[in-house]
Amino acid sequence: MSLSAFLPALPEIFVLAMVSLILVIDAAVDDSKRYLAYVLSLATLAGAAFLTVRDLSTMPVLALNGLFIDDPLSDVLKLFLYLTTAVVLVYSRTYLRERGLYKGEFFVLALFALLGMMVMVSASHFLTLYLGLELLSLSLYAMVALQRDSSVATEAAMKYFVLGALASGMLLYGMSMVYGVTGSLALGDIAIALQDGTDLRIPLVFGIVFLVAGLAFKLGAVPFHMWVPDVYHGAPTAMTLFIGSAPKIAAFAFVIRILGQGLESQVGEWRDMLIILAVLSMALGNFAAIAQSNLKRMFAYSTISHMGFMLLGILAGTQNGYGSAMFYVLIYALMSLGGFGMILLLSRAGFEADQLDDFKGLNRRSPWLAFLMLLLMFSMAGVPPTVGFYAKLSVLQAVVELGYVWLAVAAVLFSLVGAFYYLRIVKLMYFDAPHDTSPISPSADARIIMSANGLAVLAIGILPQPLMALCIHAIGASF
Amino acid sequence: MDSILSLVIWVPILAGVAVLATGSDNNAVLARWLALAGSLAGLLVAIPLVSGFDTTTSAMQFVENTAWIPAFNIHYHLGVDGISMPLILLNSFITVLVVIAGWQVIQDKVAQYMAAFLIMSGLINGVFAALDGILFYVFFEGMLIPLYLIVGVWGGPNRVYAAFKFFLYTLAGSLLMLVSMIYLYFQSGGSFDIQTWHTTTLGMTAQTLMFFAFLLAFGVKVPMWPVHTWLPDAHVEAPTGGSVVLAAITLKVGAYGFLRFILPILPDASHELAWFVIALSLIAVAYIGLVALVQADMKKLIAYSSIAHMGFVTLGFFMFNPLGLEGGLVQMVSHGFVSAALFLCIGVMYDRLHSRQIKDYGGLVNRMPVFAALFMLFAMANAGLPATSGFVGEFMVIMSATEVNFWFAFVAATTLILGAGYTLWMYKRVVFGQITNPHVEELTDINAREILLLGVLAVCVLGMGLYPKPFTDVMHVSVVDLLAHVAQSKLP
Q1: A28 touches chain B (CB under 8 A)
Q2: Residue A396 and residue B178: Cβ atoms within 8 Å?
Q3: In chain A, which residues have their Cβ closer than 8 Å to the Cβ of B72?
Q4: CA-to-CA distance for A50 and B481, rounded, in angstroms?
Q5: Do B164 and A427 touch (CB under 8 A)?
Q6: Contact B302, B368 (CB under 8 A)
Q7: What is the pLDDT of residues B356-413, one digit of tens each?
Q8: Is the pLDDT of residue B1 over 60?
Q9: For residue range A399-445, what is the model confidence (pLDDT) as tens digits?
């Protein structure tokens, strides 16, 4: 195999090289030069983005003996992964420094996680999918546990690890069964082998059940959601921000690769499972979120409901459906960044700002941040003209196209329940008097990025076409 | 000038953003003047709609149509006919009054208050002008955000409850409407165009289900009995300006939806289920009229009277004759003037005495004669006295109901007694009699700003009552066309 065979994976190779470099450099410098790791991480993301943009593919290219695929879908998703990770780094800088977590480990782990996600996004083989997933998961476990003196964080990391390992086990078990039926681990070969049906229906269905269960674990869909609230709540907010944003994009790719590409012909089998997962997630996520007084926990349940909504797009099993789910997950990542980012911006040394009451009277303390949060909340609730509405619209459209009108009705009724707790945040910010009047002074870069983040929710809401077209194109050109 | 409608929508919104940019209350004076200029500009750009309006055609006028989200075939498609044009004008006009009404009363977060009203005004104009389903929905839902804040931030003691109730009620209705719209998209072969939907064939089951979805969405906004309970709460807790906009404009959005969506898109279900809407409307007229009679809070009383009056509107729509439809439309515009004026009157009193309880007043005429005279005019209009605008619409609807069924007309006509009962009884207790509350003794009559507000509305109320022809002329062709449309079955 010549060197040029590695070219499609150039961004991944670049990130890996840079992570190693950062690891070495960071070990050699003292605390006063810690910013080096920060700057180098951002440079890594920029470099990777450059390499990805330079080689934008117009059609799928299989590489590395069919282990790796470079298609428009992976390119677009990777670009959003870089962007999300970069925003995470900017938001969390001050927070980490105030808590003594501003160390090379954080950046190295974040970049390793990113590398894992990139591999997941570009995988066309069960083996690479699994490798990417494990690289991501192991990095995340360590990130959650990074705050060693916090017992909640350690507990969260433990839970995350145990349940994550269980989910990985299920996935592997499902993969092995599918392998047994089809004789291949490559997604393309599996799809071909299953096209004309198989005599081994029972093992195949078993395999699909295990795969779907494993995927549901990773997405945090009910009834496999138990880890989500505890991890979101227990992890330091900067880690929650990371877990709640970029990995969702990767998880989407993971699901699309396995179900949409590998098991495409078995849509009749997995659709019903996804319907159950989606309805349960929307129901439990929205109702449980109402009862929370901790904002991180509330967002955790809201994530569960959003993942349920995204599953609606996937279960349609059509290109429109996948496109809408992709749009949904990108928008969700944007909103989630904003929501957790706001908690980070409001927190300060010794104060976490993660209680609902901490948002009381924000409009008096900082009208601009309150306004941005207002946009984010209405977007999560799916109220136009914010972009959350179009995300919901496109998913609902995919479901109705399939003829599942009842499912669309159920989905909108659950999102009505959801609107209540998002409105409550707006109420706290605008209707109530502040009980804490200390000044809010986020760093300038975080403030600028937050402004861009909040306004993007409105701007994409007014002109959603470019992003929507991008998603549809990426899906259309990759399937 | 091809973009009049865009101007009508975007001038107030951009003015609102500019007002918002003035920031803190240190610049309150600037914010007020900027808001006034913005609202006046909004009214000014709407005037070509009247002067250039062609009353001989039922086709959409001032049409703008550009692709907005081609991925879903969603268009930025605007246009008005004789039904929507008067409503846009009413809205632009009321916005100016609302800005003036809040001039002195609002001292807290002035810029945000004024901006919320301006932005909402633009969004409501968008609702009336939109000819694309999703565009309509965006405006329809988007207006909830400023209204939620207006009720919640500047409202009374129970404002949080009222704001939530209002928001969730209306959202519940509109979400089901959204699903119906997506369904229509597929039924019509991939179009969100409302006029295309008007010609889409639909089976009876689909029509019936969608009828109830749309009925919930618009019925909550109208509001119809029994989904009306958010309105008194929201009204009581809203600031004066909020009440004015709620009563004068947002209720019309619901009624407008009947004419743009339910009747032309679902004609068969509309005929089949007309009895249902008529029953609800008559309950609203008679029962809610009785409820209004016993209210001790003036704002609540007017809120219930609004529900009763809107019952007339929906009743007129489902008579399926030109007289009833036009009567309903006239009633909508008239109610816009009258309810706005009454809420402003209550605002005038509330600003002075900080009470809305009828029992805290009495003998007002001794201290505030000018106000008492104007208030009387509006009370009479609310009761439906001939020569006021309130009479015209009610009379037309009752006439049309007589054509259909005597008993409909009979029940509807009770409003003439009940309306006079609750309005004039309230007026008597508040304005006449002995002064029992020592604070009333200290009141001063209304100032020039308030006279201007109420005077302008008085002219409108009388003008429309004495000579309603210009209004009905504008509507007539569109109404006849709509009825011709509704008469055609759309069953496959």
Answers
A1: no
A2: yes
A3: 393-394, 397, 468
A4: 59
A5: yes
A6: no
A7: 888 888 777 778 888 888 888 888 888 888 888 888 888 888 888 888 888 888 888 8
A8: no
A9: 998 888 899 999 999 999 989 999 989 988 888 888 877 777 788 88
pLDDT above 70: residue B65: yes
Q: Token digits for A51?
A: 């390499």
What pLDDT, in 10s, does the model give residues B227-280?
888 888 888 777 888 888 888 888 888 889 898 898 888 888 888 888 898 899
Q: The complex's ipTM?
A: 0.89
Tell me which chain B residues have a C-beta less than 8 angstroms from the C-beta of A409: 176, 179
- 3-state helix, strand, coil split of chain A in percent (to 5) is 80, 5, 20
Q: Which residues of A touch B175 (CB under 8 A)?
A: 412-413, 415-416
Nearest CA in chain B to A398: B182
8 A C-beta contact, residue B18 and residue B91: no
Using the Cβ of A401 and the Cβ atoms of chain B, whether some distance falls under 8 Å is answered with yes
Tokens of A431: 């209707």
The pLDDT score that the predictor gives to residue A1 is 62
- How do residues B200-217 score in pLDDT, each as one tens digit? 888 888 889 889 989 988
Q: What is the DSSP letter of B361?
A: -
CA dist A59 and B125 (Å) reads: 45
Q: Given an 8 Å threshold on Cβ–Cβ distance, is B137 in contact with A400?
A: no
- The tens digit of pLDDT for each residue in B73-122 reads 888 888 888 888 888 988 888 888 888 887 777 777 888 888 888 899 89
The rounded distance, in Å, linking the Cα atoms of B14 and A10 is 47
Look up tokens 């959350």; give the residue: A388
Nearest alpha carbon to residue B396 among B331, B490, B311: B331
Q: Output the six-digit token pair for A27.
A: 């070990």
> CB–CB of B236/B158 below 8 Å?
yes
Distance from CA of B176 to the nearest CA of A (A): 7
Q: How many residues does chain A have?
A: 479
Give contacts of A465 with chain B, Cβ < 8 Å.
Answer: 68-71
Give me the total of CB pairs closer than 8 Å, taking one residue from chain A and one from chain B: 88
Of B69, B145, B179, the CB nearest to A412: B179
Alpha helices in B188-222 (DSSP H): 194-197, 204-221
pLDDT of residue A172: 93
CB-based contact B392:B385 (threshold 8 Å): no
- Print the SS3 string covering A18-48: HHHHHHHHHHHCCHHHCHHHHHHHHHHHHHH
- The answer to whether A430 contacts B152, with C-beta atoms less than 8 Å apart, is yes
Contacts B113 to A, Cβ<8 Å: none
pLDDT tier for residue A14 given thresholds of 50, 70 and 90: very high
Query: Smallest Cα–Cα separation from B290: which of B265, B308, B313?
Result: B308
CA distance to partner chain A, nearest, from residue B420 (Å): 38
- At residue A339's C-alpha, the angle toward residues A335 and A340, to 5°, is 120
Counts for chain B of helices (H) and strands (E), in that order? 24, 2
Residues of A with CB below 8 A from B149's CB? 426, 430
Euclidean distance between the first and the last CA atom of chain B, given in angstroms as a whole number: 41
What does the DSSP assignment read for B101-165?
HTTTT--SSHHHHHHHHHHHHHHHHHHHHB-BHHHHHHHHHHTHHHHHHHHHHHS-TTHHHHHHH
**Which of the residues A431, A455, A468 would you substitute to probe the B interface, choosing the one with the greatest number of B C-beta atoms within 10 Å?**
A431
Q: Is the pTM of this model over 0.95?
A: no
Is A426 near chain B, with CB under 8 Å?
A: yes
- For chain A, the straight-line distance linking the first and the last C-alpha, in angstroms and rounded, comes to 27
CB-nearest to B171 from A396, A400, A419 is A419
User: Both tokens of residue B204?
Assistant: 């009876």
For A375, name the nearest residue in chain B, comparing CA atoms only: B145
**pLDDT tier at A329 (50, 70, 90 boundaries)?**
very high
